[in-house]
Amino acid sequence: MLKLRSFTKFPRIAKVGLVSLLIQSLVILALEIKIFVLSINHLSIFDSWVSDKSPLIIFLMFATATFFMIYLYIEAIIQENTLQIFTFILFHVYTLVYGVLMYFHKISNTPSDVLDTITEDSKPYLIAVPCILSTTLGFWIYISFKLYGIFGWEMYKLIGANVLFRDMYKQYLLFVQLLKMDFYFFVTFASQYVLLILHSGDIELPITVALVPISLVTLIIAVYALKRESRSLMWIFILGLIGFIGYYTFKLVRIYDKTQDTKYENQRIVLSFFGFLGLITVVFTVFQAIKCLTNFGQGLSKRIEMIEGNVNENFIDGNNYYINSAGQRRMALEEYNG
To answer: Which residue ranges does UniProt annotate as crossing the membrane (predicted)?
Structure first.
């Protein structure tokens, strides 16, 4: 049975990582707040709606990324999820790239009449954000490998040496990680698209807004279908993902449509960045969903219940469990292949 750790029971390296992450996040947020304040002080004189809102959106995107990174790390150490630890590393790299992108975006889209002033005031803070993220990347890679060794052994003791089951369970965990990234990238892309590009009269506005809760429902269906091994729901989910692939493709093509130059001129690079990442993540999710679908009917759902602690007590009391070398009751996987 998978037990959630309390903070006092976390490995020391996990505690060090958590405290370091909170400090890093506070520093990054403080820098972003400073950049935001400096930007609006200078940009308030502009007539462009997009220019006025861009600093706020950039700050919100960085704040969202920072809190999402904290969520990934905390959930990973609570659930002893090694795959999510590496998802955290990849997300840290994404945040670093976004920080670099924001520096060049800021410089290239600031009107020339105030460029020197804004650059002089904001440049140290704009540079500091990616510098901090790049400097701490090596530290997080070290923390992640340490946690992988600890949590990997704990998971091995829980699951056992059944290679087939370990592979199926890894596929399940990877699928769940992709779902989280799907939701994050879609919400951030849609939010920027609505707030920076669309106006109240645009026909795309209600469609884009409606797709946010639809995407959440779609992801919930995916998790339910996987745990219940429902082939019909899984195929519905896959078809929904194909629809999102079409959505991203349409938006990316539209962003580079010559007839839309005025609309996307100042936001093309940023929207392309989020749209491309969202598209790639959805494509990977489709392939991963099909992989998980092929594992249906092999006892994966009941084994997930066992790991997550949802097995019926009468079943636990049966003969399908044995005491392993660590003194834990574990299912005899060789007897539980159906």
So the answer is: 54-73, 85-105, 125-151, 172-195, 207-226, 233-250, 270-293
